[in-house]
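We now fix the convention by which a protein and its fold are recorded. Think of the row as the fold of the chain written in a discrete alphabet. Here is one such record, which you should read through line by line.
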Amino acid sequence: MLASDDDILSKAQEWKTTGKGVAIATVIETWGSAPRPVGSHLVIDHEGNFLGSVSGGCVEGAVVSEAGDVILDGKPRTLEFGVADETAWRVGLSCGGRIRVYVERVD
């Protein structure tokens, strides 16, 4: 079962309140077949814990990894994953679609 937006945002606030570094990833664009719609969220803490979903499979692993860097340096990033990339099969978007995910630190 996927977490609701309220659950995800509440978890981000809870983690931030307890002093954890936090980032939120949001699906900002999709093309073709994509596992999650625009507006889907994933919240990540500095320890790599997460709640929500932006895609599934290895894509989320890559987003969680990148979120760690965003938490450290504070610089937001836009990530793109898709079947046209050499890494499509490796990161789990072999369905023929592409997604763009915006990752930002919660301050």
Summary: The beta strands are 22-31, 41-45, 50-52, 77-82, 98-106.
